[in-house]
Structure prediction request, 328 residues.
Amino acid sequence: MKKVIALLTGGTTGEWVVSVKSAATIAQNLDPARFEVYKIMLSQQGWFYEPADSLKIEVDRNDFSLTLEGRKIRFDGVFIAIHGSPGEDGKLQGYFDMLDIPYTTCDALTSAITMNKGYTKAIVRDLEELFVAESVQLLQPEGAAARVQERLKLPYFVKPNNGGSSIGMSKVKTDRELQPALEKAFKEDSQVLVEEFVSGREFSVGVFRSQGTIRVLPATEVIPANEFFDFEAKYTPGATEEITPGRMSEEERARVERIVTGVYERLNCRGIVRIDYFLEETTGNFYFIEINTIPGQTITSFIPQQVAAMGVPLTAFYTELLDETIGR
Prediction:
């Protein structure tokens, strides 16, 4: 019997446009022989299923169900494809936990913690072979620039502490650029993280659990044409050189796999996550950047590239994810 799956997309942040594209890739690659899929759009206006041949139908949020032609549809599980809030910050996970409906992502606690870049680094920073850049976490804009200048050395990265897709992020190379960068980041979030720049090669790697075993996808090396890997570089085809598998020695590859497996375990992750890191230029040390617990699945996203490099069709990969997180 087919599993009835809700594919949840949209969201309430600027990342909703990426979520819609991710959901389109997922929908095209879910096995129709195994899954009956209903794509549901979540927005400020409500939660709706939009069949091609009729008006949109509102989801009953009391039990997360749909009524179609007098038939009540309940879901065996949810494939969450919402980047940012409320899909990646634990809110939806808590809701589905209360309804006892399984889902494809990390649980509510892990999702909430990993949405906060500063808290995440505090948890993983003592893992063997893992390094983190010096940073300052800012909870209010007043006096923020002075705190940064007292604690850190230029250049810095300034970023919203809760968020993704590099929205609101800036690279600051002079004192004059700091205040505008802080203002930009505080427009996106009430907390801002400022980190010292680490010179090195940037990579991104997918990690997931399948049949009880943590597996690491081939890493992607990221060489942006822009100053850094910003929103435009992430989602504009051709704006970034992306090499999958990335150029690493056998020692580096083995070390990275050990470290990211440790991060996945330490944070109690579920489903597919993506971990971004630098290999420092002078030392080769692994510097943790961040973890994304609902990584993009668009045609330009890393995870589909890495799955292809592993030699596995996306349909088979998504089936593995659903079997592991929702059950057969």
